[in-house]
Amino acid sequence: MIEQGSEKTGTKQLTPISELGEFGLIKHLTKYANHQNSSTVKGIGDDAAIIKNGDHYTVVSTDMLVEGIHFDLMYTPLKHLGYKSIVVNLSDIYAMNAEPEQVTVSIAISSKFTVEALEELYDGILTACKNHEVDLVGGDTSSSRLGMVISVTAIGKVKEKAITYRNTAQVGDYICVSGDLGAAYLGLQLLEREKRIFMENPQIQPQLTGNDYIIQKQLRPEARKDILEILNSYKIQPTAMIDISDGLSSDLLHICHDSNVGCRVMEENVPIHQASYQMAMEFNLNPISCALSGGEDYELLFTVAPDDIKPLEDLHGIAIIGRITELEKGYLLVGKTGREDTLTAQGWKHI
Amino acid sequence: MIEQGSEKTGTKQLTPISELGEFGLIKHLTKYANHQNSSTVKGIGDDAAIIKNGDHYTVVSTDMLVEGIHFDLMYTPLKHLGYKSIVVNLSDIYAMNAEPEQVTVSIAISSKFTVEALEELYDGILTACKNHEVDLVGGDTSSSRLGMVISVTAIGKVKEKAITYRNTAQVGDYICVSGDLGAAYLGLQLLEREKRIFMENPQIQPQLTGNDYIIQKQLRPEARKDILEILNSYKIQPTAMIDISDGLSSDLLHICHDSNVGCRVMEENVPIHQASYQMAMEFNLNPISCALSGGEDYELLFTVAPDDIKPLEDLHGIAIIGRITELEKGYLLVGKTGREDTLTAQGWKHI
């Protein structure tokens, strides 16, 4: 009846989505999304949208997790999945230096799921809400013919002055990152390997013991509210901030492109957990590549003015990995030998 | 590896979701969703959540549309689908007597979609945003292995006093409904019939001419902002309000149950469009059943205090269909002959 996307085009060549990539696609599709309300302070293009509401500003972020794309129910406990679906959104709110207060959760499920299965999912959802002091205020439950989809919207609050965008990094700022990187990616590699072995021979039980750290980073990541509390205790407001969902390279380049600056990252300062390092070796992967491009770390990446950096210099859990430079200097990764490479972002992994 | 939902239950019988139904399921899953923030005025259980923000209150609603469940791309133009995905959410905001100002849109798509197809979808999304003066402020684009999913969250604003909940109908109030009912359901029946004929013989082109009204009500419904403007012009604030997404019976029973009241609906006053009436006849369906249970009308159903009803009595486009009664009187539908039946809600259509 209708051939979607071909109606108006006649013999014109159609464009596959892969040609634009995720960010290009969003940019392309929303280029006519002009704002009509004065309350809209910031729309598309940061971790979250900003809406003016008197003294306070409301911060809104939304994310969708799709079975078979973002998670595999063969090795993902539903409780962890529920927890993760909330914290990946809260992470975006924290990345604006804001405090999340409410979430809505929409799920689509096939009839194969039982009430007990959904109880586990909601157990995780509500545990995340409790840990982060946010309220589940709404949602939609729907069926799907195939697979599960979870869509979460988080809403937070922030004072105008405290809002931390990603386009405000300044030349000379220090580049900082919380926690360590690459673990979630390596956890995923391990889970996928054990799944393959299990598929070939269901008698063999997965060997996951001793790898709790990287598996937890993949299946049940945490949003770094504690980092905001630390920065706050030192009265440090980052000059720019983003959460690392796509990988350090990709997300740092977001800050650089949007702030019109360059960067210089010291490879030896990029934090990698011992467990990640070992697993990278086991997979014959370069640990630094995993840390730069792995994604799903949900750590905070932020820039700090030189005057503010002192208290962070010896702080456990926050690594200073480089400096913001003039745009002309480019986006550089400096190896242990002093060799300079250009940082490059990954494409859209999922299509 | 993991058998979801069976881990903790041992030999205990698992519960199919169909046993609880949609509303029972949501209630069951969210019974421990206690609120921790004083800004959360209203959570789950109305058309939208309410968040206190100084003088104004923020209203949040979210909905998910799933291919094969909520729409069929064989006969749904993507532009209409985009339009509908926005207005079904705005309808929830209007049903709180609030003004929508922002939306976020998350989509999951398979690689079969081209950029041009998504342009059509966003054309519809942005047209709806323009018509309703709302801003598209965020979203997420993801892939799906099979089928398209669209998840929209709408955010609005309302003064505390103007908020219209669904649990505040009073005995003696008049029950009013905007527009007419059943058309969207009959439009769907027609589209499904023509699809079946087309599937059997692709040479036969669908016969849709002359049925524009019911098809438009199904494919490109409108959210009734204009009704709020009319009520406002008469300084009428409904005592309770809901939008009709599940069907008049089901949604009126929401108001009754939540307000702890009964109702008495006069069948002859339920508004049915001539085109709906004719199509019901063609399908051998009872027009009043289509109006009561069809769903997807996105009309507003509201109750008005007796002192306020006068200006609405002869107003075109708003029908007074009955009265709110004491709970003990039950939920009654009074036929043209005076015969009384009990109104009953439909179950969860989609599972």
Task: Please give the number of β-strands of chain A.
Answer: 13
Outline the biggest β-sheet of chain A.
Answer: 7 strands, mixed
Q: Count helical runs of chain A.
A: 9
- Name the CATH superfamily assignment of the largest domain in chain A: PurM-like C-terminal domain
- Assess the beta-strand content of chain A as a share of residues: 15-25%
At the fold tier of CATH, the topology name of the largest domain in chain A is Phosphoribosyl-aminoimidazole Synthetase, Chain A, domain 2
Number of spatially distinct domains of chain A: 2
* Global structural class of chain A: alpha+beta
Quaternary structure of the protein: homodimer
Strand order of the largest sheet of chain A: 8-10-7-11-9-12-13
Helicity level of chain A: 25-40%
Please write the CATH class name of the largest domain in chain A: Alpha Beta
Query: How many whole angstroms does the radius of gyration of chain A measure?
Result: 21 Å
Overview of the structural elements:
The structure is a homodimer of 351-residue chains. Chain A is an alpha+beta fold and 351 residues long. Chain A has 2 domains: 17-162, 60s Ribosomal Protein L30, Chain: A, CATH 3.30.1330; 174-342, PurM-like C-terminal domain (Phosphoribosyl-aminoimidazole Synthetase, Chain A, domain 2, Alpha-Beta Complex). In chain A, 30% of the residues lie in helices and 24% in strands. Chain A has helices at 21-29, 78-94, 115-131, 183-200, 212-219, 225-233, 248-259, 274-282, 287-293, and strands at 40-42, 49-53, 56-66, 99-109, 135-143, 149-159, 174-178, 240-243, 262-266, 300-304, 318-325, 331-334, 340-342. In chain A, the strands form 2 sheets. A 7-stranded mixed beta sheet of chain A has the order 8-10-7-11-9-12-13, with helices on both faces. Residues 347-351 of chain A have low confidence and may be disordered. At the A-B interface, helix 1, strand 2, strand 3, strand 4 and helix 3 of A face helix 1, strand 2, strand 3, strand 4 and helix 3 of B.
